[in-house]
Every structure is written in structure tokens, then in C-alpha cells.
Protein: Flagellar basal body rod protein FlgG
Organism: Algisphaera agarilytica
Amino acid sequence: MKTLGVGLTGVMMIGMLGLTGCGEPQGAAAASARFAHSDERSMESQRETYQQTLDGVYEAYDVVLNNLAHAQTPGYRAIRPIFETASSEVSGRNGVLQPVMLRDPSPGRPVKTGRWLDVAIQGAGYLILDDPAANGVDGLAYSRAGQLYISPDSVLVAGSPNGPRLEPIVVFPDEFHDIQIKTDGTVQVLAGARPRWTAIGQIHLARFANDAGLVQATTGHYIATAESGPPLVDTPGGLGLGTLQHKHLEGSNVNVASELAELNRLKDWGESLGEGLGIEPEFKAPAPAAATWDAPVHASSGPVISDRHR
């Protein structure tokens, strides 16, 4: 497997030599129609190799742009485009470099929000969501983003008050004063005429033998595949799963400086390929990442029931 840096050197050095050398006369005595035709075909093949590699650079560039757009998205895992030499069966010719997209499994740092319904997963695991729109096995999807809400029908959901509910279901009473989410996923509320802490449900987590085999659905959540293997489900802390950190969110694992450097490398590579093709590749400038979580809330009193529509 070649990294981007190796691919860049190989394509720019070998490829550029191929393009500049293809049409050079080999000497008047050796010139002939047969050799000229051979050189023409060689140049055309080299141009097609350049074009297919440039298409891969465009694809990788868009992936890095998407990473930057999610630099503030809770629980987002960056995608790493790693360039490999495509087989001739795939590309139709030798020497074409194409990106393979690999998800970076490293966790983002926990960020304290102070919000009653935020949880960060410390270690392995994903929240389990009943999300039929994701088209996952048994209608389930998985997420590291622990921005939770209480739905209008008093159920614990993810992402927004109308988001997918967590599995197993957690139902809140009509009135309560405070919420605690324990490290093992136990959900408690402070309720009653003489308020006391009462457990109302349990958050479970799932992990997979191969996280890289998970596929991101159009909903933004992950779904299991044959490559990921089936989910292993337990309460936080069991079966090698992580624990929950209440009133925190896991940040994105996108390193903005590294992603910007990657954009510059891809752009330079694409422009070098463009010179060989006689074109000027166009690359979009990165847009600033928008924050996708609420501002920190540090309220210490008052009924949390008002937070259910936040």
C-alpha cells in the first residue's frame, strides 16, 4: 500500500518523464511511421493514466473537504484517503493511483458541555439507535454522537427532539427535577413529592470486530455490514466497551492543521498532473466548519424538564 507522499513522487517523477519523453524524436535515422504511431499510442495511454489519477485526487480532495466541514461535529470520525496502484482490471491500464477510503478509528477528545443530556463514550462502542431511515440490519444504526434529547412523547432520542430513539427504549416521567446518567449507562431522574433518585432505564452500547467495515448512511449514522461483523451489545463497561461521561460530548477527531496540509498536498499533486494534461485543475477552497452542538450550559438548578426541547 502506498501512502499519498509515495504516490505523489511516483506519479510526478515517472509520469512527467513519460509525457515529456514520448514525443521526442529519437534521431532522424531511427524515425519511422511505425515508431511515431507507437509513441502516439504511448502518449495517449499516459494521458489516460494521468486523467484517471487526477480523478482520484479530486475524489480524495472532496473527502478531506468533508472532514474539515465536520471539524465541530460531535463524534465524527475522519476519513483518510490512502492511494494505491489500481489493478489493470479496474483501471484498464497500469500505473493509475486511486484512493482507498479508511475511517480513522481514533477518538475525539471529550468536551465538557454541562448539558444534562450529553454523554461522551470513553473507549470503544457506539450508541444503538432505532433508525429505519438508515436502512441498517433490523432497522438499527450506530453513533458516537452523544447529544441526546427527550422527544415530545418522553422518550430518549439522539440528535434532535425528533431524532431516532435509543435502544433499548428509555421513557421519562412527566415531571422530574434532575437527570443523572451513570458511567454504566444507568439513567436516573430526581422525582417525586419527596424527591429521590430513581432509575428509569439503561443505555446500552455496541462494538464491532472491525469498525472500518461500518458504512455511514445518509442519516449520518453508521450501519453494520458483513465486513464489520455483527454488533456485540452490553452495558457500558462490559464486553470491552467504554463507559459514559455525563455532561460531556466526544469532539470530532479531525485535526484541522493536518487536513489543511493534506489539501495543499493534493492540490499540488493535481496541478502537476494538470500540467502534463495541459489543463488547469480547479479545487474548491475549504469552508469554515459550523458548530453543530449547543453552546455549553452550566445551569445548576431548575427543572430539567424544560431542557427536553433544547
User: Anything to note?
Assistant: The helical segments are 4-22, 33-69, 88-91, 256-277.
